[in-house]
Write a structure and sequence with these properties.
DNA polymerase, domain 1, hpI Integrase, Chain A, 3 domains, 4-stranded antiparallel beta sheet, 3-stranded antiparallel beta sheet, 18 helices
Length: 472
């Protein structure tokens, strides 16, 4: 066998060869150039066996609070002589022991101090990515690339930011001077604040200052109150959806059920119906909004305020039931974990395999925006032409269906009783707290103050009958 090889493998160094065959390295000579070394000081020799410096060793707490060995070397080349290297090592160990006795460990510079804000953002994307929705991730990346990565602050290192936190204030001024609108400034600063908060938890020795207090997020005041139609206006929109020209009636039934689900549920959001509500979550008079079993955080983006239940009125329940019957007549029985408004293909609802699970395919954001453009907007414009259509119906957003459901509930027997208004149950159904309801719907509460409460189910049935009696 050739010299320098083991079992015919490629040549390896003497050090590696000895370790591989289980032999210890030859013991180092304890070279002290004529005198005994102090406790904790050890010689450093080069490959030729010559003294090259000294090493000071001691025990201290590591970042996790566990005792470990620590060391620092002092070379003859740097200090100028063996005596100087020994003196430096001895002095350093003495000081280190004093610090350890008081503090438990020696403070060292964190390598993360050299990270730039751009590099911290890249870490944040990797660390937080699995917990963020695709839409939010795209929005954050867009704001960062446009307003932060293009400016000097993106190249600032974390250590420098800790030394001069006023860099954040100067960045505020830079955005203002550049004419960035208050709404966009708010999004940019929220993004930067989120990244720095994460960085502060991740690298506390590099970001030694809490910077959150330096952020002055512009408040974007609401310019209009929440718009709410009524049950009659919603039924007119559903009528327009059902009467539009489509190549497959199944899609018309699905679209009508989607509008009804939003307008006659107290009270759900579009994302909750699209990403959370399954057939197994539909019950008599209610829908449970919760994460699907086996789904990831990224597929549960509809749960803005956590799992809860919402009231399902009959006008919504009947149309959802009609859509399900038609769907099952064509594609067979639908499983309980199928989404109510699952993406459809030529062979029926779409599914994707994820490990051992089959997960339903939800609409993506582009699907939703295309739907509002193709279906919702033409339907509301057509419905606004009807006699007695609510004012403002032609400009109603799809999200305003939620506002409409809450508005109708606010002046119904669900909320108003002989002892006044009780907002607690409605707040729970809507996924709000009472204060939020009062702030967003104060105009609705004031509008119906002192009037007799309506029977919500009866009001919805009357609206459907009116539309059926006088179609467009």
């Amino acid at each position: 066998m050739a010299e320098g090889t083991i079992l015919g493998t490629t040549p390896v160094s003497t050090r590696v060869r000895l370790r591989l065959i289980g032999m210890a390295r030859p013991p180092k000579k304890r070279l002290d150039h004529g005198r005994a070394l102090p406790v904790g000081i050890y010689p450093i020799v080069n490959d030729a066996g010559e003294l090259s410096g000294y090493k000071a060793r001691w025990r201290e707490d590591d970042p996790d609070g566990v005792k470990r060995n620590s060391a620092k070397s002092f070379s003859i080349a740097q200090t100028g002589s063996a005596d100087a290297a020994l003196a430096e090592a001895s002095l350093y160990r003495e000081r280190a022991l004093k610090v350890v006795k008081i503090e438990g460990s020696i403070l060292r510079g964190d390598p993360a101090e050299r990270l730039t804000l751009n590099e911290l953002f890249a870490e944040w994307c990797v660390g937080r990515g699995p917990d963020l929705s695709e839409r939010y991730s795209e929005k954050v990346a867009r704001y960062w690339d446009r307003e932060i990565a293009s400016r000097r602050i993106s190249k600032v290192r974390l250590g420098r930011l800790s030394q001069d936190p006023a860099l954040i204030t100067r960045f505020h001024d830079e955005l203002l001077a550049a004419g960035v609108t208050p709404a966009n400034r708010a999004e940019v600063l929220k993004t930067l604040r989120a990244v720095l908060r994460w960085g502060r938890r991740r690298h506390p020795s590099a970001l030694t200052v809490e910077l959150s207090g330096l952020f002055e997020i512009p408040s974007v005041a609401r310019k209009r109150l929440a718009y709410a139609a009524d049950a009659y206006g919603l039924e007119r929109i559903i009528e327009a959806v059902l009467s539009r020209d489509v190549h497959d009636d199944l899609y018309a039934l699905r679209d009508a059920a989607f509008v009804a689900a939003m307008g006659f549920t107290v009270a759900a959001r579009p994302s909750e119906w699209l990403y959370s509500a399954t057939w197994g979550d539909i019950h008599a008079g209610s829908v449970e909004l919760q994460r699907q079993r086996g789904s990831t955080d990224r597929t549960a983006i509809g749960l803005k305020t956590g799992a809860r239940a919402a009231l399902l009125l009959s006008n919504a329940a009947k149309r959802i039931s009609t859509y399900r019957r038609t769907l099952e007549d064509r594609f067979g029985e639908q499983p309980d974990n199928g989404l109510v408004f699952q993406a459809l293909g030529p062979e029926g609802p779409l599914w994707i395999e994820e490990g051992a699970n089959q997960l339903p395919v939800a609409w993506d954001y582009d699907d939703y925006k295309n739907w509002t453009s193709r279906v919702w907007r033409p339907a509301r414009a057509q419905a606004a032409k009807a006699a007695d259509a609510p004012s403002g119906l032609a400009a109603m957003r799809f999200y305003d269906c939620r506002h409409t459901a809450i508005s109708m509930a606010l002046h119904s027997t669900l909320v108003m009783g002989p002892h006044g208004m009780n907002l607690h149950n409605l707040a729970g159904w809507a996924g709000h707290d009472v204060q939020t309801l009062q702030r967003y719907y104060a105009h609705v509460i004031a509008r119906y103050q002192g009037l007799e409460p309506i029977d919500l189910e009866a009001e919805c049935l009357v609206a459907r009958a009116r539309v059926a009696a006088a179609p467009l």
